[in-house]
Write a structure and sequence with these properties.
- With about 300 residues, the chain is an alpha/beta fold.
- It has a single domain (about 1-305), classed as UDP-N-acetylmuramoyl-L-alanine:D-glutamate ligase (3-Layer(aba) Sandwich).
- Helix content is about 35%, strand content about 25%.
- It has helices at about 40-50, 60-75, 115-125, 145-155, 170-175, 185-195, 200-205, 245-260, 265-280, 290-295, and strands at about 1-5, 10-15, 30-35, 55-60, 75-85, 90-95, 100-105, 130-135, 160-165, 180, 210-215, 220-225, 230-235, 300-305.
- The strands form two sheets. It has a ten-stranded mixed beta sheet with strand order 5-4-1-8-9-10-11-12-13-14, with helices on both faces.
- Helix 1 (about 40-50) packs across helix 8.
- It is globular and about 55 Å long.
- The protein binds adenosine-5'-triphosphate (ATP) and magnesium ion.
- Magnesium ion binds near residues 165, 185 and 247.
- It comes from Kitasatospora cystarginea.
- Keywords: ATP-binding, Kinase, Nucleotide-binding, Transferase.
- This is 1-phosphofructokinase family hexose kinase.
- Belongs to the carbohydrate kinase PfkB family.
- InterPro entries: Carboh/pur_kinase_PfkB_CS, PfkB_dom, Ribokinase-like, Tagatose/fructose_Pkinase.
Length: about 300
């Protein structure tokens, strides 16, 4: 089973209308709600691939209850720890005429010290059943700044490899704990290191403690610096669609490959094919299986000249 951890789980709310009039009243045509957060997206992708996965993290209030109901409806194993604060919503306003989307990200709850301690207990209870653990997304207020380092060390105490998909201070703080893999995107990589060149930036994250660094570069694919060498992998086609959640699909594939002990070039090809297939699907956490199958053998993987 692959365990995913979403500390700031969210209910993704999508409002659809023709056109948003600023400063006016807008009638919304329809509203959709869905459990979200990056770890939840990773679990959705794993579940769709037929791979056992469990969702944990923190969720609270009416919003937390709604998102947990949705997880169960999606067939996902819900092990989110209930907290007192109200989980956040992410609100997307989709203007169908112009094709524009405006997104509002709520800050989410303030986690209490006792809740954080209880979560560590929950993680310790789940880790013995996990082949790998994925820590994804932003940290809610109230958890320690080095939360991901604390969690990665917990995983190591159970001999479970840890994957971290975070940015900024949360990512940097995780590195000394030695996660097996980190997966920043281009912006996150530059922000975490101050370096414009992705290869140099990835090298500096490895030097700071990450076992492997796989950086996703949007339509340009992935670069990977690993203990066994460096590669660049790219989709033969640039897909049109919804890139939100493509990185989460890449994380799902990378984690599965790590668990299987797949050779890096194969693992990276699969990550590129699956993430491109995620762009081709409308919702984060989904992928187009036909695109996935078609691209798999077509991904270009070559060693990085370093
Ligand atoms: N337009 C595209 N066509 C083909 N593949 C794409 C495209 N956009 C993204 N990808 C694939 O998806 C992967 C992840 O994309 P990206 O770097 O945008 O992730 P991200 O910003 O972390 O996404 P998120 O955090 O929203 O899940 C890329 O490495 C690439 O393989
Ligand atoms: Mg991402």
């Amino acid at each position: 089973m692959i365990l995913t951890v979403t500390l700031n789980a969210a209910l993704d709310v999508t409002h659809r209308l023709d056109r948003l009039r600023r400063y006016g009243s807008n009638r919304v045509r329809d509203v959709a709600e869905r459990a979200g957060g990056k770890g939840v997206n990773v679990s959705r992708v794993l579940h769709a691939l037929g791979q056992p996965t469990v969702v944990t993290g923190l969720a609270g209030g009416l919003t937390g209850a709604a998102l947990r109901r949705d997880l169960v409806e999606a067939g996902l194993a819900d092990q989110l720890l209930p907290i007192e604060g109200e989980s956040r919503r992410t609100v997307a306003v989709v203007e169908e005429q112009a094709g524009d989307t405006t997104i509002l990200l709520e800050p989410g709850p303030v986690v209490r010290p006792g809740e954080w301690a209880r979560f560590l207990g929950r993680l310790d209870a789940l880790l013995p059943g996990a082949a790998a653990v994925v820590f994804s997304g932003s940290l809610p207020r109230g958890v320690p700044e080095d939360a991901y380092a604390v969690l990665v060390r917990r995983a190591h105490a159970h001999d479970v490899p840890a994957v971290v998909d975070a940015d900024g201070a949360a990512l940097r703080a995780a590195l000394p704990a030695g996660p097996a893999l980190v997966k920043p995107n281009a912006g996150e990589l530059a922000a975490a290191t101050g370096l414009a060149d992705p290869v140099a930036a990835a090298r500096s994250l490895r030097a700071a403690g990450a076992g492997a660094v796989v950086a996703s570069l949007g339509p340009d694919g992935l670069i990977a610096l690993t203990p066994h060498g460096g590669w660049r992998a790219r989709s033969p086609e640039r897909l049109a669609g919804n890139p939100t959640g493509a990185g989460d699909a890449a994380v799902a594939a990378l984690t599965l490959g790590l668990v299987a002990g797949a050779p890096w070039p194969d693992l990276l090809a699969e990550a590129v094919a699956l993430s491109a297939a995620a762009v081709a699907a409308p919702l984060a956490g989904e992928f187009d299986p036909a695109v996935h199958r078609r691209l798999r053998s077509l991904v270009d993987v070559r060693p990085l000249r370093t």
